[in-house]
């Protein structure tokens, strides 16, 4: 089966970015001039995904608006002769089909994914977390979709992290089948370093079989009193295989302040209109 839909949960409060996130969803904070969520949606589109399902919360409507048409703005820009800007806005509005569902209370990532059940239906789907920005030649989610196409089993993105950071991630126990491809045996949410079964952390890209919904439906709250997707995966792996993909690409955790700054600098250094100036400025700062 083909992966046609991607669920992007955006219902979190974004407390690490207060006060910015008091009124602006963190997913709209720009990396230079492009809201970070646009990169994630673009990644899905490049992997052939046709429908984006946002799981939203209060105060997040502007995310959907970003992917909608803006006729008044387009008219003003057209009157002023800014054809390229109009074309850019049209490309964003025509990029993909967007639908949304509300998560009324932020009860956890597993719960957020469950909220998309009716919109996904009985088919495999992608989950993409907007906190993870991944710069890769082959879009990260495409790398996972390719494994799914071959195996028809769930696939999760993995990144080797330093031991002192395992307590910030879901971590896997698994065996490496071939370079970069793992078969998952168990998953643990945010283990202490001494209890971590490996240093392979789960990053925010997943391709999941629909069986996960029945599991999430019956899952008790886990760590932090939240319904954890990682706990759901622990149960799914008892029913069906789950593969892990150590993806190729650079990942930035933009839910974290330093990660956000790193991404801003790295993306600016890749932009033809900015790279020379930014590189020069970094040199000056270094002196
Ligand atoms: P985080 O744990 O980073 O939480 O959620 P957060 O609220 O976004 O940010 P901080 O920690 O307060 O700064 C990881 C992802 O899961 C989504 C978030 O939107 C984010 O993309 N999420 C989390 C939900 O959609 N609903 C939830 O109940 C929890």
- Give the mean pLDDT: 96
Share of β-strand residues? 25-35%
Rg, nearest Å? 19 Å
Question: Largest beta sheet, briefly?
Answer: 9 strands, mixed
Strands of the widest sheet, in order across it, are 5-4-1-6-11-8-12-10-9
Q: What is the count of structural domains?
A: 1
Shape: globular
In total, the number of strands is 13
CATH superfamily: Spore Coat Polysaccharide Biosynthesis Protein SpsA, Chain A
Structural write-up:
It is a single chain. This protein is of the alpha/beta class and 287 residues long. The protein is built from eleven helices and 13 strands. Strand 2 and strand 3 form a beta hairpin. The protein binds uridine 5'-triphosphate. Uridine 5'-triphosphate binds next to helix 5. The site of uridine 5'-triphosphate has 20 residues, from helix 5.
